[in-house]
What we know:
Blueprint: H1 2-18, H2 40-43, H3 76-80, E1 87-93, H4 98-107, H5 113-124, E2 133-136, H6 141-147, H7 151-163, E3 172-174, H8 186-192, E4 197-199, E5 210-217, H9 221-232, E6 238-245
Parallel strand pairs: 1-6, 2-5, 5-6
Antiparallel strand pairs: 3-4
Helix pairs in contact: 5-7
Amino acid sequence: MLYFSSAQSFLRKFLHVIFPSACVSCDRPLWDDPVPFVCQTCWARLVPLPEPFCPHCGGPYASPVALQHSPSHECGTCRAKPPAFTQTWSLFPYQSPLREAIILFKYRGKRSLSKSFLQVMIPALPALPTIDVLIPIPLHPQRLREREYNQSLLLAHGLSQHLQIPLLLSCLLRVKQTVPQTSLSKKERLTNLHRAFAVENVSRIKGQRILLIDDVFTTGTTLHECAKVLRKSGSGPVYGLTLARMI
């Protein structure tokens, strides 16, 4: 194992000499950095979202004592318009260097970053309730043809192996082509995904406790719309887990 690690280190250094590249966060030249496209110094700044969180949407509260006297107290957004999902967790803030790494992963074809993401996600996982199946947030077929892979599926696959929970595919479908949520205003995000998802093979999700997997939580609309169609199709409680969250 030591030899293998040394060989990997040598190969990284050799490749950086032949093909010089810079950290996507700080722009310093990369040398012996185990995370693709990000230097060790920047990656070390990656820390999980601080508690406490809203027990429904997982949004962090500003006050560290927000839930001290009422552990089930939900945020104003969830109280005003309860989401269809039972609970969600986001592991890291959508900030540098994770923001730049996710953009490369999602839009620039850098699939190798999925391994680095899973290496930080797994230790940060919360105590999950009993889950029967994992479902990645699907892409529209046209978007999948353009991108050639579903970034949420890559994350879900690794989590499925770690958690020993089956991965359910070809059940939750994206039936409406939409523009990326990050390109819209908050108001536009709330309507962009309306009726964008559907369920087929309904019998496969009947009564199943589902954990949806996605890369970034923006307004929660994606998870809400997916949970809504799953619940209407007869699923059990629907939860959500994302790598990052916009705050």
